[in-house]
Automatic annotation (TrEMBL):
Residues 17-283 form the Tr-type G domain. Belongs to the TRAFAC class translation factor GTPase superfamily. Classic translation factor GTPase family. PrfC subfamily. Its main location: cytoplasm. One of its GO terms (molecular function) is GTP binding. Increases the formation of ribosomal termination complexes and stimulates activities of RF-1 and RF-2. It binds guanine nucleotides and has strong preference for UGA stop codons. It may interact directly with the ribosome. The stimulation of RF-1 and RF-2 is significantly reduced by GTP and GDP, but not by GMP. Keywords: Cytoplasm, GTP-binding, Nucleotide-binding, Protein biosynthesis. GO terms for biological process: regulation of translational termination. HAMAP family: Rel_fac_3. It is found in: Cytoplasm. This is Peptide chain release factor 3. Gene3D superfamilies: P-loop containing nucleotide triphosphate hydrolases, Peptide chain release factor 3, domain III, Translation factors. One of its GO terms (cellular component) is cytosol.
């Protein structure tokens, strides 16, 4: 095997050490877009925040970020945004913007090394946040908690800490503690220095919020009772062992907590500092055989997201790759692990801010977008030098099912192409059976919103409008051919073959599944990974 011509190990290691790759997990409206802009603002990537994230007509964060890219001239890959802060390079990987939960989200979280859990102070831990948190837990991702909208009336800070502990099982270890109740945000105690960081409001949050550091004595004199209360609460936290401890954080026992008002740029710098100081750098990833290819070795990475039609002028097929080891150089020839074939990366440049800042290289932790990558599927590994294959990304148990067919019978070809493409991109799971026939596949989704994406994409991208009908199933179990023969006699159960070759038995209710297991204990009915 030829050794790659990349940079030497020490240089790769030092670049990897600078990387912080994270995603924001939150419920819609908690302020993710606002925070994203505020983070960029603070990192000096842009000079004014605000205005681009109007909700009306928004198609999801991809287009938001594209709009931001155009408006701000910043480098965006549409799946990740990169900026420098202090001596670190921060990659913020976008989680899909829709309210619904989908498989996409799981995959994005496989590409990051930490998560920021953004919580609306008045709402606490909402449904979507908890679902995403569960994925972080499954993936052992360290989680930093940010309590947002502290400028508005909300819950008591101590109550929020209780809620975090109760619902996530993580011990909250606040790094800052608010002075003044929610809605009367005066600033925070920085618990490591015991200083008061007083926020000074700037009009509309259009400029970086000013803040001044004030000693505890001055704060006590200026803020009176609010300071007293905050100090007492902070001491209480220390007594209860709720101070930050790096080892416990990285072991997923604790979550550092920060208080912020993203819309006013309050607390944003603390978030950046926390990422740089405490979040893990890009480290060696476990591969499919349980080994760890060192970050300093030759280039390798895996595809965590595939997307089409991002460029209005041509139907690009873009594969987003998380770099796991080595140096990525635009134009390099890599090997596609699944097929063993060479893959040329000469089109990578289209994704890096288009006419600006052509990024010629990337390092462990970075996200690279490869254009015209129709050979690459979600979960695929690519590498240079010694072969490596990263674990396949889990396919989750679908909980919603619809049978679809082409609305126009003369469009069978487009229909087939579209469904195959969406399957390929991992937008939806596609299942078929002889009984239903090839023209009537069953689509399975983790969240019902995935069907809306399918309808829209089929109509607009593939010119094959669909008709679809909900099927009364809620549960899928993996089965085998022998069991399928027996299950075939049960009218209430349907067995279909997913495009990856897995046989799935679909049940309408848990009760129905239990009955089947009771009557036929010999059948193979295996759990699939679940999204809830
Ligand atoms: P997303 O759905 O999570 O991306 O949320 P957005 O960033 O679009 O924010 C939702 C709404 O909350 C918008 O109207 C924001 O202006 C508002 N918002 C975001 N952060 C704050 C904050 O810190 N304080 C207040 N008062 N409003 C905020």
């Amino acid at each position: 095997m030829t050794q790659p011509i990349g940079l030497s190990t020490p240089e790769v290691l030092s670049e990897a050490r600078r990387r912080r790759t994270f995603a924001v997990i939150s419920h819609p409206d908690a302020g993710k877009s606002t925070l994203t802009e505020a983070l960029l603002l603070h990192a000096r990537a842009i000079t004014t925040a605000g205005a681009t994230h109007g909700k009306a007509g928004r198609r999801g964060t991809v287009s938001d970020w594209m709009a931001m890219e155009q408006a701000r001239g910043i480098s965006v890959t549409s799946a990740a945004i990169q900026f420098e802060y202090r001596d670190a390079v921060i990659n913020l990987v976008d989680t899909p913007g829709h309210a619904d939960f989908s498989e996409d989200t799981f995959r994005v979280l496989s590409a990051v090394d930490a998560a920021v859990m953004l919580v609306d102070a008045s709402k606490g831990l909402e449904v979507q946040t908890m679902k995403l948190f569960e994925v972080c837990r499954q993936r052992n991702l360290p989680v930093i908690t940010v309590i947002n909208k502290w400028d508005r009336p909300g819950a008591e800070a101590l109550d929020l800490m209780d809620e975090i502990r109760r619902r996530t099982g993580l011990i909250p270890t606040p790094l800052t503690w608010p002075v003044g109740i929610a809605g009367d945000f005066r600033g925070v105690i920085e618990r490591s220095s015991h200083e008061f960081v007083r926020f000074t409001r700037t009009a509309g949050g259009a400029k970086a919020a000013g803040f001044e550091r004030v000693s505890a004595d001055v704060a006590a004199a200026d803020e009176g009772d609010a300071w007293q209360t905050a100090t007492e609460e902070s001491e209480l936290l220390t007594e209860e062992d709720q101070d930050h401890d790096e080892a416990r954080f990285l072991a997923n026992e604790t979550t550092p907590v920060l208080f912020a008002a993203a819309v006013l740029n309050f607390g944003v710098q603390h978030i950046l500092d926390t990422l740089v100081d405490f979040a893990p750098a890009a480290e060696a990833r476990e591969d499919a055989s349980g080994g760890h290819r060192p970050v300093g070795s030759a280039f390798s990475g895996f595809v965590f997201k595939v997307q089409s039609g991002m460029n209005a002028s041509h139907r690009d097929h873009v594969a987003f790759v998380r770099v796991c080891s080595g140096q990525f150089r635009r134009g390099m020839i890599v090997t596609h692990a699944a097929s063993g074939r060479p893959f040329a990366t000469k089109y990578a440049q289209h994704l890096f801010g288009r006419e600006r800042e052509v990024a010629d290289e990337a390092w462990p932790g970075d996200i690279v977008g490869l254009v015209n990558a129709s050979a690459l599927r979600v979960g695929d590994s690519i590498f240079e030098g010694d072969p490596v294959e990263y674990p396949p990304l889990p396919m989750f148990a679908p909980e919603h099912f619809r049978v679809v067919r082409s609305a126009d019978s003369s469009k069978h070809k487009q229909f087939r192409r579209g469904i195959d493409q969406l399957d390929h991109e991992g937008v939806i799971q596609v299942m078929r059976s002889d009984l239903r026939g090839d023209q009537s596949p069953v689509l399975g989704a983790v969240g019902p919103m995935q069907f809306e994406v399918v309808e829209e994409r089929m109509t607009h991208d593939f010119g094959a409008a669909i008709r679809s009908e909900a099927l009364p199933y809620q549960i899928a179990r993996r089965t085998d051919r022998e069991s399928a023969l027996i299950l075939g006699h049960d009218r209430q159960v349907e067995v279909l073959m997913r495009s990856d070759g897995t046989l799935l038995a679909l049940f309408s209710t848990v009760w129905r599944l239990r009955n089947t297991v009771r009557d036929h204990p010999e059948l193979l009915l295996e759990d699939l990974a679940t999204g809830s």
